[in-house]
Amino acid sequence: MVIGHVDLSGDADYILKMLREGVYVEFDTIGKENYMPDRVRAEILKKIQDKGYIDKVLLSMDITRKSHLVYKGGVGYSYLIDTFIPLLQTYGITGESIDKMLIKNPRAFMKGESE
Q1: Checking phi first, is residue 11 left (phi over 0); if not, alpha (psi -120 to 50) or beta?
Q2: pLDDT digits 0-9 by tens, 10-66
Q3: Which of 39, 40, 45, 82 is the most buried (most CB within 10 A)?
Q4: Is there a contact between 83 and 89 (Cβ–Cβ < 8 Å)?
Q5: Exposure string (b/e) for 50-82, b if CB count within 10 Å is 16 or more?
Q6: What are the DSSP E strand ranges found in 17-83?
Q7: pTM here?
Q8: What is the pLDDT of residue 8?
């Protein structure tokens, strides 16, 4: 199971509780600063990494409208890679963790793999 929009809670303890239960969580409103600042997302992800639960985290963007596209003034699809990932690195998120959240964890979830 993957639970989406958990980044909107802003509550690291709540998210860690879900991770301890074994579900995947998705930070999928990245770039929507009006809902939650990305720095808060980065702080929570750092806590998750430090507690050893990064293997169950997925990253995505909730691009649902034309207004979210760059040509309409939005952040666009590349924001995740071009802006958010460098922000995570400034918070101490490792390259290994980034690789997991972007590649390995989604692959494991889609294949139905679990620990």
Answers
A1: beta
A2: 999 999 999 999 999 999 999 999 899 999 999 999 999 999 999 999 999 988 888
A3: 45
A4: no
A5: eeebbbbbbbbbbbeeeebeeeeebbbeebbee
A6: 24-27, 57-59
A7: 0.91
A8: 93
